[in-house]
UniProtKB/TrEMBL annotation:
Full protein name: MBL fold metallo-hydrolase
Domain called Metallo-beta-lactamase: residue spans: 48-223
Organism of origin: Ancylomarina salipaludis
Keywords of the record: Hydrolase
Superkingdom of source: Bacteria
GO molecular function, one term: hydrolase activity
Gene Ontology process terms (BP): antibiotic catabolic process
C-alpha cells in the first residue's frame, strides 16, 4: 500500500510538472515569416502581443521584447536559439506591454531622434515613467546603440529603415524592409481598438507609410491575430480625419485598465482618443 501510494504521488507530481512545462513552452508561439524573419506571439497575454525578430547575416533586431506577463518563459533564450548572430533589442515604443523582459537583453538600441536623446541621463539610461511602464517603480533601459532614422542600414545582407511614426505615442517607430516588402508598425495600426494620443500626428504617420510602401507589402502589427492590408492604413487615416472634422459623440464608454474611457467608431474603425496619452487614468 505504501509503495502504491508513493507511486501515485510521484505520478501526480509528474503530471503537474509536465503541465507546467507545457504551459511554459506554449507561452511563446513562433511563426517563421521567412528564413530570416520570425513573429513571436504571446497568445495568452492580456494584450495578445507579437514581437518580431529581424535577422541579418551579421546581426539581428528584436522589435519589442514581449509583455513580461509570463514569469517563467525566457524570450531571450528563445531568441538566441533562433539565431547565431548578436541580437539588439529595439522598442516600437515604451508602453508597458512592449518593454517586458527588456533587461534580459544586454544590447538595447534607441532610434536617433534628437527629442528622444534628451531623455538619456549621463549613464545613457532612459527612465520610463509610471504612465509608460505601468510600474510603481521607474523602469530603466540602458541604451548601448543608436539606430539612424529615415535611411537604410545593413544588418548583413539585409537592409532596413526606421521611421518615427508618432500618434499612438510620441515615441512610436516603424521598421520598413523594402527588399522583403515588410512593414512592422507596432501599435500604429492593427485590427482592434486603437489608442490615439495625437490625431494630426497619427494621420501624418499613416500618410508617411502609405507613401513609403505599396500593396505588395506585408504589414505586421504588435497585437491581434489578423494581419493588415495596405488599404487598412488609409482606412484608419480617413476615419481619424473624419473624426477630427465632425467631432461625433462617443459610441459608448468602455473599461480600459480599470478606467472608463469613451470609444468612437468611424467607418468600422474603433478607437479611443486621449490627448494625455495616459490610458491608465
Amino acid at each position: 500500500m505504501l509503495m502504491r501510494g508513493l507511486c501515485l504521488i510521484f505520478f501526480l507530481l509528474f503530471l503537474i510538472c509536465t503541465a507546467c512545462q507545457k504551459k511554459d513552452n506554449n507561452w511563446f508561439t513562433i511563426e517563421k515569416l521567412d528564413h530570416k524573419t520570425y513573429r513571436i506571439r504571446e497568445k495568452q497575454s492580456s494584450q495578445n502581443n507579437s514581437s518580431y525578430l529581424i535577422v541579418g547575416d551579421k546581426e539581428a533586431l528584436l522589435f519589442d521584447s514581449g509583455s513580461g506577463e509570463n514569469k517563467t518563459g525566457d524570450i531571450k533564450a528563445l531568441v538566441d536559439s533562433l539565431v547565431g548572430v548578436p541580437v539588439t533589442l529595439l522598442h516600437s515604443h515604451f508602453h508597458f506591454d512592449h518593454i517586458g523582459n527588456s533587461n534580459a537583453f544586454p544590447e538595447i538600441a534607441l532610434p536617433d531622434l534628437p527629442a528622444l536623446q534628451t531623455r538619456l541621463d549621463q549613464d545613457s539610461c532612459i527612465h520610463l515613467s509610471e504612465k509608460e511602464s505601468l510600474s510603481p517603480e521607474t523602469y530603466i533601459l540602458k541604451i548601448k546603440k543608436r539606430c539612424p532614422l529615415n535611411t537604410e542600414f545593413d544588418l548583413g545582407n539585409r537592409k532596413i529603415s526606421i521611421y518615427h511614426t508618432p500618434g499612438h505615442s510620441p515615441w512610436s517607430f516603424t521598421i520598413v524592409d523594402k527588399r522583403g516588402s515588410y512593414l512592422f508598425v507596432g501599435d500604429l495600426a492593427y485590427k482592434g481598438l486603437l489608442l490615439v494620443n495625437n490625431l494630426e500626428e497619427y494621420q501624418n504617420s499613416l500618410n508617411q507609410l502609405i507613401h513609403l510602401c505599396d500593396s505588395s507589402y506585408q504589414i505586421y502589427a504588435a497585437h491581434g491575430n489578423e494581419d493588415l492590408l495596405y488599404s487598412d492604413l488609409d482606412k484608419i487615416r480617413l476615419a481619424l480625419k473624419a473624426f477630427q472634422n465632425t467631432k461625433p459623440s462617443p459610441r459608448k464608454e468602455i473599461e480600459l485598465f480599470g478606467n472608463r474611457k469613451e470609444m468612437y467608431v468611424i467607418d468600422g474603425i474603433p478607437f479611443i482618443y486621449d490627448v494625455t496619452g495616459n490610458y491608465l487614468k
